[in-house]
Automatic annotation (TrEMBL):
It holds the Pfam family Beta-lactamase. This is Class A beta-lactamase-related serine hydrolase. Keywords: Hydrolase. Residues 48-267 form the Beta-lactamase-related domain.
Length: 283
């Protein structure tokens, strides 16, 4: 079962900016189970695999590190053409050879989305609907494409934001549906057991982080994965942007495994993470 979010968030529509990562990985794995190529082979035209893109071991830089990108977002400018974004990001240079390090790269997720759409010959939004939302009977989740799509977001400061700045895709929906999706993933409703097990293999990244509940940190395929003290293992994703932060996590070590979705305003992901852990332990 999933934990219903508290603090009146049941009917609010929130931005699931960073929750697209486990969903994106889930779609990749679903397609692997039904035919198209997936996994460890280098992608055509590249020296890294889809697995390395999703696990952040491709060596690609991140586009958020570009000062001009952050300036454009802050000034509420129109998003750059995708080709311009890729060129600017890659001008920073490769960080390491594929598989020889770890660095969080939104550019990698952008390329992963392109690969998924190329292989399936379907749009990102269609795949989300067909492979995740329809099977789980979810009605709130949508891919935001225009400024107007953010009119339904709970946070007043979200008004006018252009989701095109999130080049790998920006999904919106209720906190309840965010929790339902992640819970369904870990309950085996979206992937078979071997594929889900592969998705959960993580790359250790260290211990505690000041101001956040993590006591052990790592990253799996599209999933932040570690431990949070007495809550035990915690798997899911945190995220943030110009006006809100979120933490949507599954807690498999509790007597009854649950999933919690926590959204709040501000820019401190630790606030949402602590709230998620507290809610999980209170259940």
């Amino acid at each position: 079962r999933h934990r219903r979010p508290s603090s009146g968030l049941r009917r609010r529509v929130d931005r699931h900016r960073h929750l697209h990562r486990p969903w994106q990985k889930s779609r990749s794995c679903i397609k692997a189970e039904t035919g198209p190529p997936y996994g460890g082979r280098p992608l055509t035209g590249y020296d890294f695999s889809l697995r390395q893109l999703l696990g952040h071991t491709s060596g690609l830089p991140d586009y958020y590190s570009l000062a001009s990108y952050r300036k454009g977002v802050a000034a509420n400018e129109e998003p750059w053409p995708a080709a311009q974004l890729r060129e600017a990001a890659m001008a920073q240079g490769r960080l390491f050879a594929p598989g020889k390090g770890w660095f969080y790269s939104n550019l990698g997720y952008m390329l992963a989305r392109d690969q998924i759409e190329d292989v399936t010959q379907q749009s990102f939004s269609s795949l989300v609907k067909q492979m995740i939302c329809d099977p789980l009977s979810l009605r709130s989740v949508e891919l935001a494409l225009t400024r107007r799509d953010f009119d339904r977001i709970h946070w007043p400061s979200a008004s006018g934001y252009h989701p095109g700045w999130v080049y790998h895709g920006c999904l919106t929906g209720t906190a309840v549906d965010a929790a339902k999706i992640l819970h369904a993933l870990f309950m085996g409703e979206l992937l078979n057991a071997p594929t889900l097990s592969e998705m959960r293999i993580h790359h250790p990244l260290g211990g505690a982080i000041e101001g956040r509940p993590w006591t052990e940190c790592g990253y799996a395929l599209g999933l932040m994965s570690g431990r949070c003290g007495e809550a035990g293992r915690v798997i899911g994703h945190s995220g943030g942007g110009p006006f809100s932060v979120n933490a949507v996590y599954h807690f498999p070590d509790l007597p009854t495994p649950i999933t919690v979705a926590s959204f709040t305003d501000g820019k401190n992901e630790g606030v949402a993470e602590f709230a998620a852990v507290k809610a999980a332990l209170r259940d």
